[in-house]
Amino acid sequence: MDINSCIRELKISNHTDSRGGLFSLEIDERYFSVLRVYYIKKVGLNEIRGSHAHKTLSQIFIPISGTFDLIISDGESWRNITIQDCNIAYALSAGFWRELRNFSEDAICLVLASDHYDENDYIRSYDEFQTWRKNEK
Length: 137
Ligand code: T46
Description:
- This protein is mostly beta strands.
- The chain has 1 helix and 12 strands.
């Protein structure tokens, strides 16, 4: 899989009415089962979350509020997606480097993960990630 197809946009449905906001996302269980949920919020100015790759974990990033950048690498090229539309979620496949940067003060990112937490699934050095990618090909 290449850097252009590793991210899929998923439409979040907006059911907002006079009572307030309600947003939903239907997940196709043939492609993704949710085994864990976590969220990131109150990230300080210039702080970076992520900066690692996952060997097998797939994730769906759901922007709840605010803006931030999702930066992806395949070990050679980089892609920057500025997330500012709370009506789109992003499904990221395993095997890609990710960094989350430039969080606005009000940014909240909900993440659905395809597996339980496992530190062995992380590659936390970019050099190691590049070597791992080459061996995976
Ligand atoms: C990812 C980016 C976007 C747990 O114990 N359980 C969990 O489910 C998670 C996500 C983390 N932790 C512990 C492990 C560390 O001791 O929380 C601590 C901070 O985790 P980490 O440094 O991995 O946090 P981020 O924000 O750099 O990365 C997280 C996810 O770990 C990662 O999968 O893609 O968000």
